[in-house]
Amino acid sequence: MIRNNNKRAAALAVVLLLAMALLAGCGSGGISSGKAEGTTVVALTASSAEILYALGGGDMLVGRGEYCDWPPEIAEVPTVSSGDETNVEQIIALKPDLVLMATMAQSPEQAAQLEEAGIEVYTSDASTIEETYVTIEEIGALIGKEAEAADVIASMQETFETVAADKVDGGTIYFEVSPLEYGLWTVGEGTFMDEAAGLVGLTNIFADLEGYAEVSEEQVIERNPDYILTITMYYGEGAKPVDELLARSGWENVTAIQNGAILELPNNELSRPGPRLAEGVQALSDFVHGIENG
Question: Given this chain, do its domains 25-162 and 166-292 carry the same CATH topology?
Answer without folding.
Answer: yes
